[in-house]
Amino acid sequence: MNTGTKENPWLLKTPPLSSDYQMYKDEKDGKDILVCAVGKTILHYDYRCIEDLHAMLKKHNDWMELGSADEQKPAKEGTVEAWGRSETNPIGGWYGLKKGFKGRFGMYLPPLLELLGLAEVTHNPKGNKMRAL
Question: In the chain, N or C: fewer CB atoms in 10 Å?
Fold first, then answer.
């Protein structure tokens, strides 16, 4: 299994299994971040999102809709995407760190948690969900 470094990133597919992307741990301004490379597009997320999302899903104790949306679009309430930008999550707002590219939390984080053995994700063309393992 890849180690999640820049030299050996995690190789992932979006929940509908329609696109490939990579993720790896890095550091920016003294803070651990998660880099998500989708083609030429680069997104950054606060690295604690992995642990925080897993803990929230364990507490939720059921399937949760992913609800992926771009930063400029509203997130459907009760979804992983909405939680990833909520003022009530552990960091009090967006896990996305790069202006203009803060969204898509519900698209790119679930497959990583699945790869790490922390969650189960459905892989339908639309309306995917996840739950903690």
Answer: N
